[in-house]
Amino acid sequence: MIKESRLETRWPVGVRLPVVLTFEHQSGEGAPLRPGERPNANSFGQIEYGARRGIWNILELLDQFGVKATFFMTGMAAEKFPDAARAAQAAGHEIAGMSYGFEKVRTASREREQTIVRRTVKALADTCGVAIKGWRCPDYRISAQTFDVLSAEGFDWDSSMLNDDLPYLLDCETGPLVEIPFTTTTQDKACVAFPYPMRGGPSGLAHTWKNEFDVLYRETDTGPRFMILSLQTWATGRPAPLRTLKQFLERVTAHNDIQFARCSEIAGWCDRPAQTKN
Question: Please, what are the domains in the chain?
Answer without folding.
Answer: 3-31+38-276 (3.20.20.370)
